[in-house]
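Question (not urgent): is this output format expected?
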Amino acid sequence: MATIFDKIIGMFSNDLAIDLGTANTIVTIKGKGIVINEPSVVALKTTKNGKKKVLAIGKEAKDMVGKTHSAITAIRPMKDGVIADFDITQEMIKYFIKKVHNRNTFISPRVIICVPYGLTQVERKAVKESALSAGAREVYLIEEPMAAAIGAGLATQEPQGNLVVDIGGGTTEIGVISLGGLVVSKSIRVAGDKFDRAIVDYINKTYSLQIGERTAEEIKIQIGNAIKLEKELKMFIKGKDRITGLLNTIEISSEDIREALKEPVKEVGEALKQVIEKTPADLSSDIVENGVILTGGGALLKGLDKYLRDLIKLPVFVAEDPLLAVARGTGKSLDNIELLSSELNE
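Got this back:
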C-alpha cells in the first residue's frame, strides 16, 4: 500500500508506462496519455575498429530498414516477443525514458513496463535494470494479457472470467483473467511478424517474386483475411523476380493471402482452444456469457473474429482501438501500482 510519503513523491514525478512491443514501443505519461508511439527498431553503425554505435532509434531507424549499406544495420532487439539483444534493448528503453522524462522534475519517475507472458527471470531482470539505469526510481512489470484486458475495459478485478487474445507483433498472448490475476495463460510465437513472413514465403513460392517484410505487412493490412470475403480484394505489388533477377510487378488477390495465412491463423485458433479447455468450469460459464475479446494489431485481420467464433462456438469481439489496448491498460495501471502482482515483480 502506498504511504503518504510515496504519494507526496508521486506529485513531483512524471510516472511512465511503457508497452515494450516487438513491433512498436508506446510510452504513456500519467495524466497526459500517450506521448510516444514508435517502432521498436534500432539502427547501428559499425565503426572502423569494429564496434557498433547506436545511430538511430524508433521511426528514424525503421525508415532505414532494408535500405542501409554494409556499415549500417537496422535491427529489432525484441524478436518473437522476447529480448533478442539485451544491450540494444537496454539502449532503446533508456532512449524512450530519457526522451519523455521531464528534466525539470527533481524526482525520478516510477515506471511500469508491459512484457510478454512467460518472460524468463533473466529477461525480467534485464528489462528492470534497463529502466533503472535510465533513471527510473522504481520499476514494475505487467504481463500483456492483463494489460490488454484492462485496456479493453474488462472488469479484471471482479470474481468473473474474462478471456482476452492479444495478437501483437511477435507473440499472441492469451489469458483468462479473474480477481486481478491470470488463471490460465498461453503465449505462442505466432503473430503479426509470422503472418508477414508467411506472405513473403507464399509470394516467393507461388509467383517467384521476392518481396520484403515491409511490403508483406502492407499486403496484410490492405487485403489480408482469415475467411472468404463477400468481395475478394486485389492489389499490385512490386518485387524482384527470383528466376530472372529483374524487377517485376504482379497482381495478387485476397484469396492468395488467405491461403498464405492459413497455417499461422490456424495456430492462433488451436492455442485459443487449448486455453479454453484448461479453463475452470465456473469461469467457463462467464466466458460463454461475456465472449472472447481480441486486441493487438492482429485483431484487425479481416474476418479473424468470425474465423475464431466458428472454431470455438463462442462470441468473439474486437476491442475498440485494439492496437492501443495494451498501451492503454499499461497506462491505467499507473493509478493502481499496488495491485500489480507481487510474484511477477519480485
